[in-house]
Batch of 2 targets.
Target 1
Amino acid sequence: MNHFEDRPGPSGVPELWCEGVRLSEIAEAVGTPVYVYSTATLERHFQVFRTALTSALPGRRILIAYAVKANPNLAVIRTLAALGAGADTVSEGEIRRALAAGVPAERIVFSGVGKTDEELVFAITSGVAEINVESEPELERLAIIADRLGRVPEIAIRVNPDVGAGGHVKISTGASDTKFGVSLSEARRLYARAAGMKAVRPVGVACHIGSQISDLSPMEAAFHRMRELVEQLRSDGLSVSRLDLGGGLGAPYHNSPDPPLPEAYAAMIERVLQGLDIDLAFEPGRVIVANAGVLLARTVHVHRRSDGRAFVVLDAGMNDLLRPTLYDAFHQVRPVREGNGAPPEPFDIVGPVCETGDIFAKDRAMAPVSSGDLVAFLSAGAYGASMSSEYNARPLAPEVLVKGDSYAVVRRRPTYEEMMAREILPDWQSQNLD
Ligand code: LLP
């Protein structure tokens, strides 16, 4: 459930609202393209996810570390942090964002295959809760750095359980031919090696097998393997107190059967972990934020070509929402104001970027729109703004957070001057300009 719904506007014509604010009002005031997020939906999704886990797994210590990469806006992180969320981070930038948004360091997990020395120093000195080590060379570097700093960070070994899953091959991380983590057998050896080091304290094992997972069985298979690993490590005489099961639960995108509900996910975890005494961590991203956000765009014009193809050309492009181009991802696109009664027609919905791939949907049935009409991309709260770029020298779309009847611009659109201000002409060129 989310808080974007059709209700009559001032003239009585139904239009899309976010909580108590008309999306058309935001588009007028802030311009398009613009991302709009709903506080009530963010809160609801986090609470539903947490309640599902705490009800199915009573008495366990559970950290829900929101995967910042899905939507790193400070106001979004802060909304979740206020409810007790931790943060799953993959760079110094994300750790800094989580801290700046009010996530305490002891609720921050630091993952990622290529953490640099500088990032490890920053994570250790910030006192993050857990560093998920993805390889032996990383463990060795981490131990040297921690020793130098005189700190003993708590670590988990990121395991690749060799179960791939996810909505697209480019977002499947758990198969053995991907770059993520170490094999189950290597994890056993590496954990023992880490336990013998004075500079780090291994406390757990972690996995994350993919994203937009719509079928629980690969997760269940992977989690069984993780449980066996914990039992093996303990029978090796090692102490293991934490199991990090990653993120990956899918969100509904309106084009296929809905993915399993958090309740079913939690019940599956309870089945797998029955009788195993261990603290748990989760790293959900998409399931919390995807349906808490939309991207609003304006129709530049409709190009009806003589060969019969009709293109809706928008002022949002692949630089604003990359998912359709990169993964052929489906996003529902709809006019913000429906109701002229015209039957849907097939359109190619495209952006203005000079790339054939700048296409959001091909032959998509949509109620006809005209130049100037607003459209909304639904389910755009996750991996939307976070993957946007300034390609074609297009300013990053601003972001707006709605709460009840109010809204605030939580990232403003940069000016062209600001976009160019980070670039510096070398002396020999700037002299020539005089
Ligand atoms: N933990 C780790 C270690 C991850 O790599 C990821 C996502 C997550 C948690 C959060 O996964 P989620 O709950 O959001 O599925 N850009 C792609 C998705 C890439 C996901 C990468 N890792 C997309 O737009 O579909």
Target 2
Amino acid sequence: MSDIALLPSVTTFFRRDHGMFIDGRHIPSTSSNKIGVINPANGETLAHVSDASDSDIDDAVVSANQGFKVWSRTSPAARAAALFKLADLMEKHREELAQIETCQSGKIIQISRAFEVDQAAHFLRYYAGWATKITGETITPSLPSFTGERYSAYTLREPIGVVVGIVPWNFSTMIAIWKLASALTTGCSIIIKPSEFTPLTILRIAELAIEAGVPAGVLNVVTGTGRVGKALIEHPGTDKVSFTGSVPTGIAVGKGAMEAKLTRATLELGGKNSVGFLRDIDLDKAADGIIEAGFLHSGQICAAAERFFVHRSQIESVMDKLSLRLRALKIGSPLDETTQFGPVTNKQHQQKLAGFFATARAEKSTIVHGGNIPDGPGCFVEPTIILANSVNDTLLNEETFGPIATFLPYDTEDELLHLMNSTPYGLSASLWTNDLSKAMRLIPEIEAGTVWVNMHTMLDPAVPFGGIKASGIGREFGAAFIDDYTELKSVMIRY
Ligand code: TXE
């Protein structure tokens, strides 16, 4: 098979002079600094975006505050209707959005279509449904009554204001949709700062939002580096940041937000997620499970697993079966519909992964499969299996965010639990077993925001998602996101 042909609308979009999306339209940036957007499959420059100037940032904040005034007074049903329409428009432009996403991120086209567009639209509709269901509560105070006076109280959930959504490069469409959907459903406005590596798809979606009836100023997109994100968070005209990205940047963002003006922060950070296979598991299912947990989108998923614990008597068989599966993966161009494994998203990340291979070799961990960077202009990285010497090996402790599964054998279930929890992070974990009662007893012992049983990585909008320990603060999805995007106002009445 060969690459699919790019739609004319996609090639025309790449050629545009991309500025900021402020006040419902694209406006040229006042900055002359441009950032090249590189196709990681072949190293070619796809487009240029602007690195926002201070005045671009000010303009976006002014616009978002005006947008907030309008949107927070728009009825919940009208807000929901606009978001439902946006989901429809994303589906109508499915192929165009998926192609833009694949070209900028290297994500295989099947994943761009199924997750970045279809799943993103599904999440958007789920969130839109909440707009009409956000409520407070009524309370009867117990204050003393001296002259027969009585009291009543109730709470209001009010939108927090202008949200800054900081988006990483791994799922640049879907994560942007999570943030804009959370904000717009609750009546907030949002300024999205996409990753400098993958800024294009959201610039196109912002246009669709206007077509869907989202008023000007409610969704602004400001492109640029981390400096732009920092300036937005610390700007006196913004009220909250919702950040997804790496742990060190997340900690800097959280500190900066607190110090600036107690800006509210939701931080969805990375992790070092564990998988534990109990002895009763079918070994073929275990190997399939590792592909799902560790290698989808080349491991560039915050919830993906990187540490795999298998009973000592089974570890060799599991690694053999996994090697066979990795050898059979079709690695190649992400625009070829038969490709199963594409490049990683940028050169810096490819080099970081090369550094992890060098560390594994220096520490004398066993590289069972892969462990190399293929020659060529694309950002390809071999899918890799590593057998660690001990729980202290770097590859079992630092987030690689790549297609690297590191294994360690265990002997007893107590040891398995200890190994699974021996990380400062706690975003996700999975247990694989056919023994339900064992699983039910182990689930409460596992330190992670999400625990899967016989599955890994799959997220559903109805199920809250977020990290414990150093993996973040706050929750997305379910009803849990509402607390993070609203302030609780208490009202007391004497009568
Ligand atoms: O992420 P950052 P980067 C990991 C992955 C990768 C490494 C670095 O291992 O190799 O992080 O990637 C914006 N204030 N993950 O540099 O720095 C930045 O512009 C405000 C894991 O891309 O976390 C981008 O929009 N914003 C991860 C976003 O933050 C700032 C997903 C994420 O950038 C900022 C992505 C600042 N001071 C990478 N500095 C996961 N686990 O989900 C940067 N940004």
